[in-house]
Amino acid sequence: MKIAILSRNSKLYSTRRLVEAALERGHEPRVIDHLRCFMDMGTDNPSIHYKDEEFRPGDFDAVIPRIGASVTFYGTAVVRQFEMMGTYCINESVAITRSRDKLRSTQLLSRKGVGIPVTAFANSPDDVNGLIREVGGAPLVIKLLEGTQGIGVVLAETKKAAESVIQAFMGVKSNILIQEFIKEAGGSDIRCFVVGGKVIAAMQRTAPPGEFRSNLHRGGSAQLVKLTPAERSAALKASKVMGLNVCGVDLLRSERGPLIMEVNSSPGLGGIEESTKKDVAGMIIDFIEKNAKPNKTKTRGKG
Ligand code: ADP
Ligand code: MG
Q1: Residues forming a β-bridge with 65
Q2: 41, 166, 204, 211: most buried by Cβ count inside 10 Å?
Q3: Could you tell me the strand order of the sheet in which 153-156 lies?
């Protein structure tokens, strides 16, 4: 099969591993920098221009989008163009967009009955106290909507601190959400790696001493973890609600069971393959072998 991997950098661990796994299985992988693609609209035959080439329907059997958070807008437009061409995309553009928007995904998860930390959001600072009360008071967590890798996630230990941080963020017109602090998670979270409706690997990430954010980019460490049935089913439900075939579902272990924090549509392969010793890239390619067919995209670039 001809597999396009949309990635800005072919040297990244995740990109390299996907290329390797595809080659091992006799496929023809190709890394395409989605920011260098351009598209014509208004013609009957959708296509994608890339450097001096033109991709047409049928040129690829499958697309693996690895769209970084900072280029979601353009990256998903490229995925949508492939969908319009009838090319199978392992994660659909609408699903990627849905999961990237922290407000939209929080609302969807809560509507579908997936456990999440108590979360509130507001646009104007009229009633900061009410907002703080809504999530049960301090300590609480304040998150910048466009943050990733732990940057923009703040723990306010007192009500005074919460008030001033919320006012500061609102003052510079940043979009934020406010969340109850799950203290009993103890600076750890669990990354469940989902491929095609199965949790195929899971790791626990633990923050370094004195830190509550367990992101590997913030110095967290990863180890193998055994999931409870409730955690497994929460992760699967979250992946279904988002409509993602491949995703990393992050959850916190709380006194009232697993609480989903976020669903990542381009989860890194490095930490999870290292801590679980599993061939996660290979399982993604296996899934494509079984499922990639032309014109299978549910939305065909409509959403
Ligand atoms: P990002 O998108 O930047 O990774 P997250 O929402 O995943 O932001 O938060 C980063 C980390 O902070 C999480 O992995 C977790 O360890 C910690 N964290 C986030 N929210 C909470 C919370 N409500 N309670 C306790 N810890 C939290
Ligand atoms: Mg995170």
Answers
A1: 6
A2: 166
A3: 119-121, 176-180, 140-144, 153-156
199 lines ligand 1 (CB under 6 A): no
Spatial distance between the Cα atoms of 233 and 105, rounded to a whole number of angstroms: 18
CA end-to-end span of the chain, whole Å?
Answer: 27
User: How far is 204 from 222, CA to CA, in rounded Å?
Assistant: 6
The predicted model scores a pTM of: 0.95
Q: Is residue 143 within 6 Å of ligand 1 at its C-beta?
A: yes
Helices 13-24 + 280-291 axis angle, to 10: 50
Strand partners, 222: 205
Tokens for 240, please give them. 């279904």
Eight-state DSSP code of residue 71:
G
Count CB-CB contacts under 10 A for residue 120.
Answer: 18
Check if 233 has its Cβ closer than 6 Å to any atom of ligand 1.
no
Per-residue pLDDT of 194-253, as tens digits, reads: 999 999 999 999 999 999 999 998 999 999 999 999 999 999 999 999 999 999 999 999
Can you give the pLDDT at residue 174?
87
Sign for the pseudo-dihedral over CA of 242, 248, 250, 251: positive
Question: 240 vs 2, 97, 140, 195, 215, CA distance in Å?
Answer: 27, 15, 28, 11, 24
pLDDT tens sequence across 7-57: 999 999 999 999 999 999 999 999 999 999 999 877 778 899 999 999 999
Quote the ligand 2 centre to 41 CA distance (angstroms): 36
Cα torsion 87, 90, 95, 101: sign: negative
